[in-house]
Write a structure and sequence with these properties.
single chain; 9 helices; four-stranded antiparallel beta sheet; disordered N terminus; TIM Barrel; alpha/beta; seven-stranded parallel beta sheet; Immunoglobulin-like; 2 domains
Length: about 475
């Protein structure tokens, strides 16, 4: 499993406060509802995680009891970081199915974006964005229909120094499409995009990047993955990002904070080389803060950053260093806390108009052998991106063509997951080899970028 590294060298935490445990986890509770924009319920502890396997294999190790009680006992994210389009659906389905059977909420960290980590210690990902969308579509098919938490592409928005302007635009569209694909496959999926952390980009800059990547379609953003910034500092940063998004006409977004390693002293960014780090708040959805959906261990404690050890490898000495001296997990669940102790942002509700990004039209699937197409537009001054969802009717289709009429002066400059015939006026988009077959009632996505004013919601789909 790959993990994060390069962003930690680029912006290390400036101060880290000690924190205590928050709530018990591992108790079998009903899965919380995702409909209200907040989470409740018990998080899923993976019985096959690297730390659990190590503890089982090393019962006589002097470090085992501490690692078992303070790390292996806790729910942590399962990372999906290998480019395996043929097997990822079954892997996801198995993991999610086990969590559903336990009536708990699984956390899945997707780390597959093309040019991942800008070629750093965690380099890899899909070979190109077309293949990335294929992988995401297969991933989404394994998610079932109960609540799942998706940490979508750490570093993908905060770390863009290696990308050109056109590559950033293509990545933004890929993340938008990935979010929509996941949400379409499982409406109860909670999707969070990369928010960086409090000592990296400014809140306003990160909000702009989130908007460009389609956070309006997601549930919010995550921060502090693989980093060490204090929970209070991350919460304040998150409130500033939420306020900035609301000022852009994107209200109601919430934050996830990674607390897996933020309970110790500041210093060298890399946990591989720092023995003063400690685990932070134990994972919970009971945050007591209406802006924060959960404190999670996205970065599994004990897995390396890529300094002394291979990135993502489990190292018991790192796990022991993080756990030794840290508070024990609580043995009883505290009552749900009230409002946050820190003051909410003073920014007034936005008076600006909503963004020009329109949600996809809700055209019902056609009957018979036909197909329908719904259009979501992201417009800015002088250009746009468009995401199109193709849905089959009551029978499978093998091939599709979507016809869209562009306004005068608009032109297509790039297309993904489809082939375009023409660049202006009436443009026809046909499937590529891997997304022509769409099952009855199922959907696939493609998109295109252009200059000028983007098209309206009207699109015609023809099967075959």
């Amino acid at each position: 499993m790959a993990t994060l590294s390069s962003l930690r060298r680029r912006s290390a935490a400036t101060s880290v406060a000690a924190v205590a445990g928050a709530t018990v986890v591992g108790v079998c509770l009903a899965v919380g509802s995702a409909s209200a924009g907040t989470l409740s319920g018990s998080l899923y502890r993976d019985p096959n995680s690297a730390v659990v396997r190590w503890v089982a294999a090393n019962p006589g190790d002097s470090r085992a009891a501490v690692i078992r009680d303070k790390i292996a006992s806790q729910p942590q994210a399962r990372w999906f970081a290998n480019f395996n389009p043929s097997t990822v659906q079954s892997e996801v389905s198995g993991f999610v199915g086990a969590a559903n059977a336990a009536q708990q909420i699984p956390v899945l960290s997707v780390y597959e974006i093309t040019n991942r980590d800008c070629g750093g210690a965690s380099a890899g990902g899909a070979p190109d964005l077309n293949q990335y969308q294929t992988w995401v579509s297969n991933f989404a098919r394994g998610l079932g229909n109960q609540t799942v938490i998706i940490i979508l592409e750490t570093d993908s928005l905060a770390l863009q120094t290696c990308l050109s302007g056109s590559e950033i635009s293509a990545r933004n569209q890929a993340l938008t499409t990935a979010t929509q694909t996941i949400k379409s496959a499982n409406p109860n999926a909670k999707v969070y995009l990369d928010g960086g952390h409090s000592t990296w980009n400014s809140a306003s800059e990160q909000a702009n990047r989130l908007r460009a990547a389609g956070v309006q379609y997601a549930d919010g953003f995550f921060t502090n993955v693989s980093n060490f910034n204090s929970t209070s500092g991350e919460a304040n940063f998150g409130r500033a990002v939420i306020s900035a998004l609301a000022g852009m006409g994107i209200p109601g977004k919430r934050q996830i904070i990674d607390t897996s390693r933020n309970g110790g002293a500041s210093g060298d960014w890399c946990a591989d080389d720092n023995t003063d780090r400690r685990i932070g708040m134990y994972p919970t959805t009971n945050t007591g803060d209406s802006n924060i959906d959960a404190y999670l261990w996205v970065k599994p404690p004990g897995e390396a950053d890529g300094c002394r050890y291979t990135a993502g490898s489990f190292q018991p000495d790192l796990a022991y260093s993080l756990a030794n001296g840290a508070p024990n997990p609580p043995t009883t669940a505290p009552p749900t806390t009230g409002s946050p102790t820190t003051a909410p942002p003073t920014t007034a509700p936005p008076t600006t108009a909503p963004p020009t990004t329109a949600p996809p039209t809700t055209t019902p699937p056609p009957t018979g052998n036909g197909c329908s197409a719904s259009v979501a537009l992201n417009q800015w001054s002088g250009g746009f991106t468009t995401s199109v969802t193709v849905t089959a009717g009551s029978a499978d289709i093998n091939g599709w063509t979507v016809t869209i009429t562009l306004p005068s002066g608009a032109a297509v400059t790039g297309t993904w997951n489809a082939q375009a015939s023409g660049t202006s006026g009436t443009v026809r988009f046909t499937n590529v080899s891997y997304n022509g077959h769409v099952g009855a009632g199922q959907s696939t996505n493609f998109g295109f970028q252009g200059t000028g004013t983007g098209p309206g919601a009207t699109a015609t789909c023809t099967a075959g």
